[in-house]
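Tokens for DUF1211 domain-containing protein. Go.
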Amino acid sequence: MNKTRLEAFSDGVLAIIITIMVLELKVPHGSDFESLKPLFPIFLSYLLSFTYIGIYWNNHHHMMHTVKQISGAMLWANLHLLFWLSLIPFVTAWMGENHMAPFPMILYGANLLMAGIAYVILQSIIIKTHGPDSVLAKAIGKDYKGKLSPIMYLLGIVCANFSPMLSGIIYFLVAMMWLIPDKRIEKIIRNG
């Protein structure tokens, strides 16, 4: 099977997710700075989630460059990832509307954790399909960021119970860790 349809479908879903999130940003009923203040938590949650969607789009794009053939398992694993990502607009809106309250922060972290797990499953299926000497397997190596992220998400989930602000900082730090472009795949493809 050709990977073009999988990439096009994934890109389309991610574009729709961003569109849904931006539609949650409502225009204030005033024309001064004070009217924007209540929207600040909503905008912060949007900014964080937009960053996460961008990170997933970027990393998915790089990962798909290593794929030579698509299997049914890859299609289902990709849908599994898109399912968790498609819930981000809901948890983002809930978190922002409730000014980063504990339970919305917990659910946001759980959603990020499940999306991360789904990404690792997709990555593992690609490696299993293409073999341990594949471009992706070589590029990932020990994958320290991939192993640290779920631990940090769990820490953020636990912290949300007593400090939603700390929880948000942890989610932000994970995003910053991944925001720096990962050159491993580009390097392996260029040198390989």
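Residues 4-191 form one domain.
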